[in-house]
Amino acid sequence: MTTVSAELQAKIENRTATIGIVGMGYVGLPLAVAVFDAGFPVIGFDVDDKKIEHLNNGTPYLEHLGSDFAQAFVDSERFLGTTDAAD
Length: 87
What we know:
This protein is an alpha/beta fold. Helices cover 45% and strands 14% of the residues. Strand 1, helix 2 and strand 2 form a beta-alpha-beta unit.
C-alpha cells in the first residue's frame, strides 16, 4: 500500500477524513446526515444560500429527515455548510 493510500485508510478508520458532499437537496442532505452520523466531519456545498443558512443555523428544510440532525450539525462543529466551493 502506498503512503498516500495508507494515510487515507487511517483517516477513514479513525473517522478524521473530511467528507465533501455537493448538493444539499433530497439526495445530498440525507447522505450528509448518514456520513455525519457515522462520525465523519462533513462539508456540505450548495449554490442555494438559503439551504446553507438553514443548515448552519440548525433549522431543517426537508421535513422527511426530521429536525434532530440540524441542531446536531451546529452543536458538533463537524459540519460546515457553504456556498463557496473553495471551502
